[in-house]
Write a structure and sequence with these properties.
- This protein is an all-alpha fold and 78 residues long.
- 78% of the residues lie in helices and 0% in strands.
- The chain is built from three helices and no strands.
- The chain has helices at 3-21, 27-49, 56-74.
């Protein structure tokens, strides 16, 4: 990859990390939920556009991620 592209990706990821530190307490839950959904969506994207066929471990991992999203999202809070 071209170095400027890698540098741009690194700066973008760094900026996102810095922005995340200034969010409210509940942002951690939102961020974790986003991560679980991102895993599933990336598998669906690769199936649609890259002709990728996920194996059983990909599917199991995605289901575990969605289970985690459900626990984070629907857990009762005090």
């Amino acid at each position: 990859m071209h170095r400027s592209f890698i540098r741009c990706r690194w700066l973008t990821l760094s900026a996102l990390s810095i922005v995340a530190t200034f969010q409210t307490q509940n942002f951690a839950r939102v961020y974790a939920t986003y991560g679980g959904v991102f895993i599933v969506m990336s598998l669906l994207w690769s199936m649609k556009f890259d002709d990728y066929t996920p194996d059983k471990y990909d599917i199991i991992g995605a289901l575990i991620a969605l289970l985690g999203v459900g626990i984070i999202y629907y857990a009762p809070r005090n």
